[in-house]
Amino acid sequence: VLLPAAEDAKGSPPPLVVWIHGGPHWRAIDTLQVDEAEALAAEGYAVFLPQYRGSSGYSEAYALASRGDLGGADARDVLAGVDKVIAAGLADSSRMAVAGASYGGYLANWLVATTDRFRAAVSIAGIFDLTHDYSTSDYSAWETQYLGAPPWESPELYRERSPLTHAAAIEAPVLILHGLEDETSFFTNSKGLYRALTELGRTTELVLYPREGHGLFEPAHRVDAMHRILDWLDRWVAPGERSGPVHVAGRSVRAPDGSVTLTPMGHAVRREYAGVRPAHGRVFLEVSLLLRAEEGGPGLIRLLPCGTSSDVVLTDEHGDLYRPVGVPLTTQEQPVLFSGRGALEAWAGEE
């Protein structure tokens, strides 16, 4: 169990995210690895990482204990662990979410389909239909190892243990994330879950990431996914409770006509550029932006970078505008601020 920093505690138990590892022959590791659990705990959530039946790290018998019983004893183990965390006063039972990737995504799907204990769920590369997964996965032997037979020999077991069969019972909002190049659990698992939830009129969102396989690895994708997860949890599990900066890095905004996409990549506060300082009581806010012309968009992007007619402006929560005063450059290893008249031009191309 990871808990928020003591200075973040407000006297009452924090909301809980149950983060379920994949495999199932895998394990949560008790080391700092700057991963989802640490990020969520840093944002005010308690995070429970269960070592449910089928996990590695104990014995061979324990690792094999979930075979023939997917969504059975392992799911009960997760819920028993949740009860233990709640009984210890470490989290609020009325504000809980379940999340996981791969088999953890399967269990997240399964738990919101078979229980009503969670306000929200996040399913990453999760299995929705075991027969479909057997038919599309490069690792179809996984199903035969854990279910004991191919689907035509045990169709009722495949049907019974598929979240698809119980989808009508899902009431919790579900955020679904999947890589488009996933050959382990094909992305159509997530498309099927999304189709079912939209047909049922449930709250859901599906995000498919290009170039990603079984997991998200590109830095921009990982940033984007974490921001989406936090936004989802803040919206459905603990609305209005988390105070802090609004996350915008990695989130794209498209022009109304779809021709250009702008992505904020990061920001930093600077107090001076080569000795040039802002007015008293102010700071320089340096923002990195990525502009991309979409297919069929303009062949040339031309920007006025600063001054009263600049093409890019910042707005604060009150709607006040801040126009750029210059473009940061590095000259002789010193950050300087370029300002004045002129334009930046970029021609469309592979680079």
Describe the structure.
By secondary structure, the chain is α/β, with parallel strands linked by helices. It contains nine helices and 15 strands. It has a six-stranded parallel sheet, with helices on both faces. Strand 1 (16-20), helix 1 and strand 2 form a beta-alpha-beta unit. 33% of the residues are buried. The model has no long low-confidence stretch (mean pLDDT 87).
Features:
single chain; 351 residues; alpha/beta; six-stranded parallel β-sheet; three-stranded antiparallel β-sheet; 15 strands
CA radius of gyration: 24 Å
Number of E strands: 15
Biggest β-sheet strands, sense, barrel: 6 strands, parallel
Strand content: 15-25%
Q: How large is the count of helical segments? A: 9
Distance from first to last alpha carbon: 45 Å
Helix content: 25-40%
Q: H/E series, N to C?
A: EHEHHEHEHHHEHEHEEEEEEEEE
What would you call the shape?
elongated
